[in-house]
């Protein structure tokens, strides 16, 4: 089949959205609860109205734009509008725009859906000042309760409850999980695999598991000049020993596990003081659940041994333990079938990035469509071509049509 590449409105929406939260230092900074993110929410509500859809916001701050069908059960496409600091224009935002364009196009073609179709914007997917990523999807699916977040504040003392109020989230409303029958999240790949293979689209088979541990090494603060080597309880030197363990494990399991130490805090962090404390966060990712937890625990066991050898103390807090999750088999088949009409060659790929879809997949049939990027993400250089965006739109329109016509949505489970 010859592919169609209509993308003027799609590209325009992506470009307009990219100006909201434009950071003077580069990229886009649009964290959940911030002024820019609130403007993006206003943009979405306005565009949903233009598209002829019915916008609303639930108690978790998730935004919905509905195209009512014969039945109230919902099939949704979407992603998130918030960004990391100095992020790119496509992570999350492209999935939202593609969802809106897919449903608006079907509506303009006078398509009458059997099930209610929806664009779903999930709130707070990225790390944010409240330190609760994938906030909207976790609240929607019950992984987090409203009691869990009742006392959460940012560093300025603003409560998460207040941030949700500013986002027009009603304080008393039943979440729409009971109506939601399926979810597809279109997303740029964020890596370079599709680019290297010269392919525009892929179907996600599985989303990686993620484990994050906050580890604190505690030694003894002392004078940098007068404290002899054998009398030092230097937290930074001990941290260096921990990093030797980290590098060895990362090398040993390269390809199956990916590790990152992206946050380190030293106290008192002064040039002439032996440091007494280092706090760091180590993250491990793997699509293999048993291996993921085995490596994380091996690291912790060996770090404890090194720290105690140096005469210091160490403690750990588990801040995230998210198992790998597979995407729904039937939704994968629908996406593969739709892509094949335009591009016979297309892979199934594991997502090494975390997504809202990981939480929704535990409750309902869920799939992800990867769109080729330039191999860069969470940075200002993130990019995606209009042609690839248009290809994704064609595939999503076809998939949504076929999905909606499924005789019994339970067959997708």
3D structure, described in words:
The chain contains eleven helices and 15 strands. 33% of the residues lie in helices and 23% in strands. The protein is α/β, with parallel strands linked by helices. The strands form three sheets. Strands 1, 2, 3, 4, 5, 6, 13, 14 and 15 form a nine-stranded mixed sheet that branches. The protein has a four-stranded antiparallel sheet with strand order 9-11-7-12. Strand 3 (71-79), helix 3 (93-108) and strand 4 form a beta-alpha-beta unit. It has two domains: 8-208 and 324-412, Zn peptidases (Aminopeptidase, 3-Layer(aba) Sandwich); 209-322, Alpha-Beta Plaits (2-Layer Sandwich).
Brief digest:
This protein is an alpha/beta fold. 33% of the residues lie in helices and 23% in strands.
N to C succession of SSEs = HHEEEHEHHEHEEEHEEEHEEHEHEH
Q: Average pLDDT, to the nearest integer?
A: 94
What fraction of the residues are assigned to beta strands by DSSP?
A: 15-25%
- Main β-sheet: number of strands, strand sense, barrel status? 9 strands, mixed
Annotated CATH topology of the largest domain = Aminopeptidase
Give the CATH class of the largest domain.
Answer: Alpha Beta
Which term fits the overall shape? globular
Structural class call reads: alpha/beta
Radius of gyration (Å): 23 Å
């Amino acid at each position: 089949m010859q592919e169609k590449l209509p993308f003027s409105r799609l590209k325009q929406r992506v470009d307009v959205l990219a100006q909201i939260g434009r950071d003077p230092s580069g990229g886009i900074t649009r964290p959940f609860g911030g002024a820019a993110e609130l403007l993006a929410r206003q943009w979405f509500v306005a565009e949903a109205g233009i598209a002829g859809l019915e916008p609303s916001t639930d108690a978790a701050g998730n935004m919905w734009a509905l195209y009512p069908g014969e039945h109230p059960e919902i099939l949704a496409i979407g992603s998130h509008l918030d960004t990391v600091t100095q992020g790119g224009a496509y992570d999350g935002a492209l999935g939202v725009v593609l969802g809106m364009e897919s449903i608006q196009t079907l509506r303009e073609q006078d398509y009458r859906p059997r099930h209610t179709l929806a664009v779903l914007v999930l709130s707070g997917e990225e790390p944010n000042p409240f330190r609760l990523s994938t906030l909207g999807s976790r609240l929607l699916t019950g992984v987090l309760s409203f009691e869990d977040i009742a006392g959460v504040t940012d560093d300025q003392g603003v409560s998460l409850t207040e941030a949700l109020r500013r986002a027009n989230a009603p304080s008393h409303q039943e979440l729409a999980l009971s109506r939601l029958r399926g979810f597809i999240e279109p997303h740029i790949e964020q890596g370079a695999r599709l680019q290297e293979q010269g392919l525009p689209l892929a179907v996600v088979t599985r989303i990686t598991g993620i484990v994050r541990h906050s580890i604190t090494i505690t030694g003894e603060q002392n004078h940098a000049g007068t404290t002899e080597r054998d009398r030092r309880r230097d937290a930074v030197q001990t941290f260096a020993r921990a990093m030797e363990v980290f590098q060895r494990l990362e090398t040993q399991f390269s390809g199956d596990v990916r590790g990152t130490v992206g946050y380190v805090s030293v106290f008192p962090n002064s040039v002439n003081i032996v440091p007494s404390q280092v706090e760091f966060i180590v993250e491990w990712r793997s699509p293999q659940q048993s291996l993921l937890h085995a490596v994380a625990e091996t690291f912790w066991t060996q770090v404890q041994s090194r720290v105690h050898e140096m005469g210091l103390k160490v403690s750990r807090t588990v801040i995230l333990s998210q198992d790998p999750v597979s995407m729904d088999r039937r939704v994968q088949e629908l996406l593969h079938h739709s892509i094949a009409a335009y591009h016979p060659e297309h892979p199934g790929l594991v997502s090494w990035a975390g997504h809202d879809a990981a939480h929704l997949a535990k409750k309902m049939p869920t799939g992800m469509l990867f769109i080729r990027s330039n191999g860069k993400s969470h940075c200002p250089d993130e990019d995606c071509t209009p042609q690839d965006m248009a290809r994704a739109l064609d595939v999503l329109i076809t998939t949504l049509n076929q999905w909606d016509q499924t005789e019994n949505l339970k067959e997708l489970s």
